[in-house]
Amino acid sequence: MTDSAKAGTTGAVADPAAASASATGDGPTDPTGTPRRDLSAILRPRSVAVIGASDRAGTIGAEITRNLVLQGFRGPVFPVRPNSRSVQSILAYGDVREIPGPVDLAIVVVRKELVRSVVEACAEKGVRGVVVITAGFKETGPEGLAEERELAAICRAHGMALVGPNCLGVVTTDPDTRLDATFAPTFPPAGNVAVASQSGALGVAMLDYARELNIGVSDFVSMGNKADVSGNDLIAWWADDPRTRVILLYLESFGNPQRFASLAREVARHKPIVAVKSGRSRRGNLAASSHTGSLAGAEVAVEALVEETGIIRVDTVEELFDMAAFLAHQPVPRGRRVGILTNAGGPGILATDAAEAWGLQVPDLPDSLRRELATFLPAAASLRNPVDMIASATPDDFRRATTLMLGCDELDAVIVLFVPPIITNPAEVGEAIAAAAAGSDKPVISCFMGRHGVPEGLTTLQAAHIPSYAFPESAVRVLARAARYGEHQRRDPGTVPDLPDLDLAAACRIIDQAPEGWLGTARVGELLDALGIHGPGGGVARSAGEAAELARALGFPVVLKLVSDTISHKSDVGGVKVDLRNETDVFEAWEQIRAALAERGRAEAMQGVLVQPMVSGGVECLVGVSRDPVYGPLLAFGLGGVHVELLKDVRFRIPPLTDRAAAELVRSVAGFPLLDGYRGAPKADVAALEQLLIRVGALAAACPELVEMDLNPVIALPVGKGVVAVDARVRVAHPASPPRAT
Amino acid sequence: MTDSAKAGTTGAVADPAAASASATGDGPTDPTGTPRRDLSAILRPRSVAVIGASDRAGTIGAEITRNLVLQGFRGPVFPVRPNSRSVQSILAYGDVREIPGPVDLAIVVVRKELVRSVVEACAEKGVRGVVVITAGFKETGPEGLAEERELAAICRAHGMALVGPNCLGVVTTDPDTRLDATFAPTFPPAGNVAVASQSGALGVAMLDYARELNIGVSDFVSMGNKADVSGNDLIAWWADDPRTRVILLYLESFGNPQRFASLAREVARHKPIVAVKSGRSRRGNLAASSHTGSLAGAEVAVEALVEETGIIRVDTVEELFDMAAFLAHQPVPRGRRVGILTNAGGPGILATDAAEAWGLQVPDLPDSLRRELATFLPAAASLRNPVDMIASATPDDFRRATTLMLGCDELDAVIVLFVPPIITNPAEVGEAIAAAAAGSDKPVISCFMGRHGVPEGLTTLQAAHIPSYAFPESAVRVLARAARYGEHQRRDPGTVPDLPDLDLAAACRIIDQAPEGWLGTARVGELLDALGIHGPGGGVARSAGEAAELARALGFPVVLKLVSDTISHKSDVGGVKVDLRNETDVFEAWEQIRAALAERGRAEAMQGVLVQPMVSGGVECLVGVSRDPVYGPLLAFGLGGVHVELLKDVRFRIPPLTDRAAAELVRSVAGFPLLDGYRGAPKADVAALEQLLIRVGALAAACPELVEMDLNPVIALPVGKGVVAVDARVRVAHPASPPRAT
Fold this sequence. Notes:
The structure is a homodimer. Chain A is an alpha/beta fold. The first copy, chain A, has 4 domains: 2-326, Rossmann fold (3-Layer(aba) Sandwich), CATH 3.40.50.261; 330-490, Succinyl-CoA synthetase domains (Rossmann fold, 3-Layer(aba) Sandwich), CATH 3.40.50.261; 537-613, 2-Layer Sandwich (Dna Ligase, domain 1); 619-732, D-amino Acid Aminotransferase, Chain A, domain 1 (2-Layer Sandwich). Chain A is built from 25 helices and 30 strands. In chain A, strands 9-8-11-10-12-13-14 form a 7-stranded mixed β-sheet, with helices on both faces. In chain A, strands 20, 25, 26, 27, 28, 29 and 30 form a 7-stranded antiparallel β-sheet that branches. In chain A, strand 18 (444-448), helix 17 (454-463) and strand 19 (468-469) form a beta-alpha-beta unit. In chain A, helix 9 (257-268) runs parallel beside helix 11 (299-309) and helix 16 packs parallel to helix 17 (454-463). The longest helix of chain A is centred in the middle third of the chain and has 19 residues, at 472-490. The first copy, chain A, is flat. Mean pLDDT of chain A is 87; it is low at 1-25, 289-297 and 737-742. At the A-B interface, helix 7, helix 10 and helix 13 of A face helix 7, helix 10 and helix 13 of B.
């Protein structure tokens, strides 16, 4: 408490240039070119006021004041508490406006009724950032939400960044700042892992894990209700923060998924973003929305977002920190080939099982390497991968074997497993592994089994920044996720190509000008034309005779489909007749459609029929667009029939699609071999299918008024023959009537 | 060391009656009626010799002697070491035969070269059980395997039970025995969890985890190479052991899977068996077999075994102990409906997500319960499930809410999540939960988030035997597995019904009398007849004219299939022609088959054709039998075509099938709705399909010489019309030539 107490006597001066840049938006931009929020007042303040500071132990106001001083904040702490001369031996002020000199950051812990006036006082004082700990806003209902919005508006009007309300506070371990403005009992060790949590409770747990596992933290922000500063703002800030190498997120909702997608995609190319996104189940969503008032997240959209951006999604907070322990210091592996080194068979098998399950490769070792290992390992050792040195392995054996495996061109990473036998000293084994790893640019990850051996061995490993886990499976899972992340980093994202016959402006015009609801048959045809998507051809007939004539002209067999502006699900009313082989068939089909409608009392709905040549051969596919109220448009692809409906073999992407994304999407369904010449069938025109996906994706991205689109079936013909959209349904909604969730 | 040292001066007397019962096999039986191995010499010895005992710290002989004395073995310990007056201050003997009085158990830690003579000396002395720690046997190759078999033969000839070789030793916490005959550094707390490990290294780790997590162990056995005492012997012993409530296994191989299946099925109905079976990946199998010399385990067979027996299979050693912590004291839940109680939103969401992912239900709470909760919880609390009492929840709130939720008829279990806020005392919350749980017969499971809060809270919970986990997901996973186990316990296993037209003796006779290899067409027909399985009918024609005549008699369309004793894959040689609509088609088809064979130079292989009516409509299925060299016969079921080949939608069972198992098998494939009237199609005759599975299963179980059988396709016709096995292939192998792996 000495340094900070001394520092506390000198006032901090905010940089007026930085403040004005933040206010006018002329400041730095994030990796997507959007102006970056200046969070320096929150994360690098030079003076802090605690409004609602207290002497009474066990209150939040007391805990925060105590933490600020105890952890040695490098500027003055100003307690604000009416009618108190001092708080925790520091001169107290009755009002933030009475504080002499500038205040960068105000921590607000007053009763909810007082928050608004306190924030207004901060604005008047010229405070640059506010963290509102107080709860009772959005999470309590519509009234609280309105009050929260007012708070955010006041802050925005005065250029103050606002974290919270309803949060645990913020931390930075930056040695020039050292801020612990939380009421959590733990201050984390300093390091390069930035942490943001949407749950205060999990924030407390996360600070504990960081301390327990000795994972160094750069900054920590409990985001609370995210009235102003969002996860996106934090990602953009940490993207440029030289102290931060890894970004960890616990999220219950995405504020702005579109911005998250573009931002995370750019940032993840250079800095890993690891996230737990909870609320993935239907019921969990309910709980999430009751908790934070956020809209329900669609799990499918989140998965697409993850695939798209290259963020590392994990399932649990435990896995979040497992990942951080690795990424904080180890290089990302350049491939999936892993060498496993062990002094006991069982753990080696467990690691190998897990490696195969997680998509890592455990290749045979080259003969030259096996020969070198054989020079010092006993005859009973197993030299295939995993290398089992058996229980007699010495620290020196670990060092030599690790060095040799790291030097092997056919391995991208090494996992070292150690079970302490009675003789070998875990600490010495730790030193040996660290020594071997020191010279390598490949990752080394370890597992010291048996808890009694862990602490001793870990100390050495931690000093060398080699992560160690209690179970082989955890080590493997971490490495597999890092390898997948590395592939994403290296992957060419592709480009959205310019396609011939794609008139996006015309397509959007058709949607914009269409009435609300399902698009009529003719309009659908025009839309597909504008997109450069081929239908089966054919034309509309207004009578049975016209239909027969058209059919003869097209050539048999043909298909008849009801034309009606008022009926969209044609097959549900018996409005589709296929495989009509002659004129008699056509006359009969017309009559059946008419009779079916008449039976429903909808005879007048029949405006005619579409006569199309019957497409035969090829593989049936489905291409769809839906629009989630939170996540925006999603493009779906699957094979037709039972593949999508029964077997759920369908995949999603966020449009627009690059050439690369389209190619991946087609190949990502389990049924893809059916398109690829399965059992001697001709290969389908996958290139044309990819083009169709890109065309539909371009429209979905460009035209928010398109809320639903189904091309079903799309027939993928053999190579060179293209694809045919046999049937299409399109639904339009205009902004005045917000789109329903689909 | 006081008690045991004193006890060490009195000799132990083995019970001659028990010994003779064991030798003659007149003793107790296991739950399947097989004589149960008497393991009392291993796990309840009254005197122990350590052959190879040592004074030199760090040697195995010293560690074991020390552990025996330190942990207070309740009988005399006799060190055996030539030319030493004493070992660790205990009178030493030069040879086991020199020890005065009976020796129940000998621990052998001598050099490998001496093991055989030492074991012979033990036999001569009348020792009843031997644990061979020494390594260098089966795991080193064929020579070691031969030596190991000799050891086992010596032991068997003298009625000595043998554990090992190549193992860590054995432990019992029985207060009348207190045996620590291992060189592991940790003695576990006493309790009701029995542990067997096939890996010594993981055994060390497991004893550590037990101590660390305070999970009480009854007995621990490191099985090593399992030359004599197997996992099955241990399961049978623990099934009758009143001190054991839960059985934990770490397995790399099943010695005798058939016995394991019948034994585990019986035992698991009363005592949970939790197992990690490693070596599940192809590569992991390689490592497992290099390690223990065991045969590769077929993952598919293991899955079927697990499904069949109701053992709880977990993925990691961590999960093994997570399960044990629950099962050791909590009741198995009576259903899947779980109430979640929390004082923080985030963990509640995580738990809910995990619950849905693991197949638990998180139902809405009844209004009456919500009203009762509302009487003492604040307005901001969320009363739907999860119940979020928010951070202000007091210990008394935890007690009242837990009590109310446990009392709710619509919940089967309660998960309590606690994040320590600054004011509430975790220990008091622990006491409150324990108090609420005390009066209930439903399970309570908890998660105290944030490591700093855990130890304090845990002490209280541990005293009350309420398991607590560091992460909500772990608690959910444990509860979900327990619920599934409960369902298995309660499930009616069904019976293998007597079916009409099933002449198993005749079917087996056909197989027994058949020559090695693929069964000829006529024989296959007879076999199906004996099983009461309908083929499509039809007959064999020796000429094109005969074929046409037969076809006319059967009615068109028909199918022609090559008849040949030398060609089994008829379709591969163009030997199958379908949808022949008239006599001309039949003549042409005959000619095409003939020409295709001639082209291959195999014209003489054509003995005629099978002419069958073409079966139309119905749903194509596949029924198969394969025989794994280790696991024995497996029955496979799936839908035809891409469902099995591409989408891997196929499931396996171990024959014979009960009516219940057949019904489950049909319904376990993802494509089942296609049999159940999908999209208005007629429902298939599922009852007939189940009968067919039972018939095939009966043959597979009764007739080991049937090594492969494929009914593909089996057409399931609409309800009441039965099923037709359109094509069948059967392969026979006689014992002289062991069946190949299929």
